[in-house]
Design a protein that fits this description.
CATH superfamily of the largest domain in chain B: MetI-like
Number of helices of chain B: 11
CATH class of the largest domain in chain B: Mainly Alpha
CATH topology of the largest domain in chain A: Rossmann fold
Helix content of chain A: 10-25%
Number of domains of chain A: 2
CATH superfamily of the largest domain in chain A: P-loop containing nucleotide triphosphate hydrolases
Order of helices and strands of chain B: HHHHHHHHHHH
Largest interface: B-C, 86 and 81 residues
Largest sheet of chain A: 6 strands, mixed
Distance between the termini of chain B: 35 Å
CATH class of the largest domain in chain A: Alpha Beta
CATH architecture of the largest domain in chain B: Orthogonal Bundle
Number of strands of chain B: 0
Strand order of the largest sheet of chain A: 6-7-8-3-9-10
Oligomer: heterotrimer
Distance between the termini of chain A: 46 Å
Radius of gyration of chain B: 23 Å
Chains: A alpha+beta (383), B mainly alpha (275), C mainly alpha (311)
CATH architecture of the largest domain in chain A: 3-Layer(aba) Sandwich
CATH topology of the largest domain in chain B: MetI-like fold
Number of strands of chain A: 19
Largest sheet of chain B: none
Helix content of chain B: over 70%
Structural class of chain A: alpha+beta
Shape of chain B: globular
Strand content of chain B: under 5%
Structural class of chain B: mainly alpha
Chain lengths: 383, 275, 311
């Protein structure tokens, strides 16, 4: 009976599920040229057990600072970090139960692959036999079987990456931190490694916190994504939610391509509302993000949701203009439609057999279904 | 992090201690060159400029106390010799060293590594070996020892120093500038004159200054290959030291110090600016 | 090859020759030949009244190394003893300067870029002052009536003046002081190249500061340590000024022996033989170093070229 109660309690109390909890983390420092830089501004977020979480944002947004605060290389000005319920305080990095895969791997050039991987075990005094076994297992896990005696200088970028992974994972950390580890790899290798990392995370059941500025990468790999800008978390959500229902214009623009059109709420009944775009078009039946009649609003329309011809049952509005740019990307055409004084529209259209009508210079009439519109509060460029 | 800041503090403290260790002897000399105590230079008696007066040849009341006054003529002769040697050898070694640096840096030829090694050899050898080798050489071929032998001796190793400095400058220099010059129509000599030479000029000057200072300072090699009449300043001071410690040495040392500092500062400053 | 290409090639050759003929001639005549003559002299017989007789003799080496047993030339183990003492003093100097310079090099390497340049300037500046002046300062400091003893006695720390000058310790202090920039600069160069992220990685993996230093920093700065050690060892081995000024007649190194042979004893062949012994030691050391460099190269780590002079 008691165990049931504990289990129920654990299930209900989400915090027991959290391997990492960051509470009100702020970091500021004095820039060399003068002035105060706010690297992190009151950031709070949690990472669940067995979760692949990505910190996504442009350079300077604070994602690396946050990562380093977790690993202990950056001290917070205020706020607290809890790993598995235990506050980290000012605990130095070598005592924390997290390990990092560094951006440029930071492999020890004077040690072999095997000695690099076994480093943390040697530090903690694990016996030679056990070290050998675990190193072997680790190398197998990352696909580097038999490469133990090799020197770092002899390895390719991808191989070095795996050594860095093996080295960080062998100590069975509670969380693995990855600081843009794939940025040095070429495109194909990167795609493969993305899948590898995802598989690894699933297999090991360790939470991964992954830092990147590449939104595509984030979408592919993550269970959840935290979008950061200006030291603040803009949105923390699953990839789909982030893409379909961004909470502000920054997220909308950062993740995926977007059209952001200004407009005004002309009618509202609480849950749904009608918006009139500045250009005159009216969009009905939109999900109301808490606006009242007369409020300014920004309407997000993803390029791929624009079509050439409407389905018979769909409601929406037409846009007409001249194609100023047209890019053929295999399965689709990306086009930019200029509409004179109205804002240009980006659309991604399926390439059919007759594509001459989508060439630059052509007039185009496209259809925007009402269901494609997602409303953002106006002036919400940033939280 | 709180923890690293005391480690940093200790390192900093050590650093300053290190600097103090380096500068302490020098400061001591300067300070005590103004000490009028003729017997024990390290016990402060009173401030005086007399030692400076002595070395510059002005009469002072302290002269009467010392039993044997070093002739200032000899001192001046030694300074003059040092300067003559330094200027001459600087000129020669700068030309030779720059020539080799240019050859090694800009041409591909079979003996390239040999020349690089040849340039390194004089610097790697202990002075005394060079000194005695040159001494044997000069005497067995009947060269009398004098300023000319000192000049030759200095040039052998100073060429290496100039080579190193100019080579570094050539390596640092962006070769695509020479290519651009050629691309724009300048022939080899013009490119050298208008592009290469101006760009390596700071390096050549730096190398020359280095050579000058080292020549002025050289003791061991000069000691072996200078004749009776051709003493240089360092050798002269060494002789003074062997004959007994005299307070004037402090003053001489301070003057040399100021001079060396000035030249070295200019040299190092130029080198770091043009980088 | 076309006519113009041939012409250009010839022009290049002429230019190259013009650049190299002067220096080559000069160095061959005034550097390589003197060294060769020194080698030759070491195998000649010393003349009775100084000077040299052009007859082959191996006894110069015999006196040093053990096989001389004639009326005039006898083996004296003192020569070897002095040589090994020189090795010992040189090695101690290397160790001392390592210990003194390493933390300082670390300190400077950790500074922001601009400050670094200034401090390197500050550290190397005193060493442009004449050697004899700097050694003179140490005489004044280490004498029984010198600054150090005055200060220690004044502070009441000692009752009697310490006998430092004219001992091994004084010579080591002197040599360490004089060779500071030769140890500092290679160390600094090596430490500066150290990848900060390696230190972080080591800490990330659980190593504390000491472990990180021993396992990562030290191995990574080894090239600088070795380079600096060699640049300091070589001039220390053959030094005669420092033992002469700070060691008096009590500390005799091979350099002093050589000087005696040339300037007072006038036994040049013997002096040359002593010189060759020192040269051989230096060359062997350099050979080992070059071997180590090429081995490291093949393993993918590079050692810096040891610059700096044996001044």
């Amino acid at each position: 009976m008691q165990r049931l109660a504990v289990a129920l309690y654990a299930a209900l109390d989400g915090s027991m599920n959290d391997i990492l909890r960051i509470e009100n983390a702020s970091k500021s420092y004095h820039a060399p040229e003068g002035g105060l830089v706010q690297a992190l501004d009151n950031v709070s977020l949690s990472v669940r057990r067995n979760e692949f979480l990505t910190l996504l944002g442009p350079s300077g947004c604070g994602k690396t600072t946050l990562l380093r605060a977790v690993s202990g290389f950056e001290a917070l000005t205020s706020g607290e970090i809890f790993i598995d319920g235990r506050p980290m305080g000012s605990l130095s990095p070598h005592r924390r139960p997290v390990n990092t895969v560094f951006q440029r791997y930071a492999l020890f050039p004077h040690l072999t692959v095997a000695r690099n991987v076994s480093y943390s075990l040697e530090i903690s005094g694990v016996g030679k036999a056990e070290v050998e076994t675990r190193v072997g297992q680790m190398l197998d896990l990352v696909g580097l079987t038999g490469m133990g005696p090799r020197r770092i200088g002899q390895l390719s970028g991808g191989q070095q990456q795996r050594v860095a992974l093996a080295r960080a994972l062998i100590a069975r950390p509670k969380i693995l931190l990855l600081d843009e580890p794939l940025s040095a790899l070429d495109k194909n290798l990167r795609h493969r490694m993305q899948q590898e990392l995802k598989r690894l995370q699933h297999e090991l059941g360790i939470s991964f916190i992954f830092v990147t500025h590449d939104q595509e990468e984030a979408l592919v790999m993550s269970d959840r994504i935290a979008v950061l800008n200006g030291g603040r978390v803009q949105q923390l959500d699953t990839p789909e939610a982030l893409y379909r229902r961004p909470s502000n214009a920054f997220v909308a623009r950062f993740v995926g391509e977007s059209n952001l059109l200004a407009g005004m709420v002309v009618a509202s009944d609480g849950e749904r509302c009608t918006v009139r775009l500045d250009g005159g078009a009216v969009i009905e039946d939109c999900r109301n993000p808490g606006l009242a009649k007369g409020d300014a609003v920004q309407v997000l329309i993803r390029p791929e949701s624009i079509v050439e011809t409407a389905e018979t049952t769909e409601s929406g509005h037409q846009i007409t203009g001249t194609i100023s740019e047209s890019y053929f990307i295999g399965a689709d055409y990306h086009v930019v439609v200029e509409r004179g004084e109205l804002p240009a529209i980006r659309a991604t259209l399926r390439a059919g057999t007759d594509t001459s009508r989508l060439a630059a210079g052509q007039t185009a009439t496209l259809f925007v279904p009402n269901s494609a519109a997602h409303l953002l509060r106006s002036g919400s460029a940033d939280i | 992090m709180r923890r690293t800041s005391w480690a940093r503090a200790i390192l900093s403290a050590y650093g300053w201690l290190f600097l103090a260790f380096i500068y302490a002897p020098i400061l001591l000399i300067v300070v005590f060159s103004f000490n009028s105590n003729p017997v024990n230079m390290m016990i402060w008696q009173e401030f005086t400029l007399d030692w400076y007066r002595t070395i510059f040849g002005f009469p002072t009341k302290l002269n009467e106390l010392t039993l044997y006054v070093e002739s200032t003529d000899q001192l001046y002769k030694a300074v003059f010799n040092s300067l003559r040697v330094a200027v001459t050898t600087t000129l020669i070694s700068t030309v030779l060293g720059t020539a080799v640096a240019l050859a090694v840096a800009r041409f591909r030829f079979r003996l390239r590594s040999f020349f690089r090694a040849l340039m390194f050899m004089p610097m790697i050898m202990p002075d005394i070996i060079l000194g005695i080798a040159l001494l044997i050489f000069f005497v067995s071929f009947g060269f009398g020892l004098g300023l000319h032998t000192i000049i030759i001796g200095h040039t052998t190793f100073l060429t290496s120093y100039v080579f190193i400095v100019v080579s570094a400058r050539l390596a640092d220099m962006d070769q695509s500038l020479e290519e651009a010059s050629a691309d724009l129509g300048a022939d080899g000599w013009t490119t050298f004159r208008r592009v290469t030479l101006p760009m390596i000029a700071p390096g050549v000057v730096g190398g020359a200054m280095l050579a000058f200072i080292i020549s002025m300072d050289d003791l061991v090699i000069t000691y072996f290959i200078s004749g009776v009449d051709s003493t240089t300043l360092p050798v002269h001071i060494y002789g003074m030291l062997r004959r007994g410690i005299k307070p004037e040495i402090n003053a001489i040392a301070t003057v040399m110090l100021v001079f060396s500092f000035a030249v070295a500062s200019i040299g190092l400053y130029l080198r770091s600016r043009k980088r | 090859m076309s006519g113009t290409e041939q012409h250009a090639k010839r022009r290049t050759k002429i230019l190259l020759a013009a650049l190299l003929v002067g220096p080559t001639l000069f160095l061959v005549v005034f550097f390589l030949i003197p060294l060769t003559i020194m080698l030759v002299y070491s195998w000649l017989t010393p003349g009775v009244y100084g000077g040299v007789e052009w007859t082959f003799s191996h006894l110069n080496y015999g006196r040093i190394l053990g096989w001389a047993n004639t009326r005039y030339e006898k083996f004296d183990p003192t020569y070897l003893a002095i040589f090994f003492q020189s090795v010992r003093l040189a090695a101690t100097t290397v160790l001392a300067s390592l210990i003194v310079c390493y933390p300082a090099a670390f300190w400077v390497a950790r500074m922001p870029e601009k400050r670094r340049q200034f401090f390197i300037f500050l550290i190397t500046l005193p060493f442009f002052i004449s050697l004899i002046v700097r050694l003179f300062a140490w005489v004044l400091i280490l004498r029984p009536t010198g600054f150090l003893n005055q200060a220690l006695m004044g502070l009441g720390l000692i009752g009697q003046p310490l006998e430092i000058i004219y001992t091994d310790v004084a010579v080591i202090i002197g040599m360490t002081y004089v060779f500071i920039p030769f140890m500092f600069l290679p160390l600094y160069a090596s430490i500066e190249k150290l990848d900060e992220s390696l230190i972080e990685a080591s800490q990330d993996l659980g190593a504390n500061r000491i472990q990180t230093f021993l396992r990562v920093v030290l191995p990574q700065t080894l090239p600088g340590i070795i380079g600096g050690s060699i640049i300091v060892f070589i001039p220390s081995l053959g030094n005669f000024i420092v033992p002469s000024v700070l060691g008096g007649a009590k500390v005799v190194m091979t350099g002093n022996l050589i000087e005696q042979q040339f300037l007072s004893a006038r036994n040049w062949p013997f002096g040359a033989a002593l010189g060759m012994i020192v040269m051989t030691a230096v060359l062997v050391l350099l050979l080992l170093y070059v071997r180590a460099v090429s081995r490291e190269d093949r393993q993918g780590v590079t050692l810096p070229v040891a610059h700096g002079g044996a001044k």
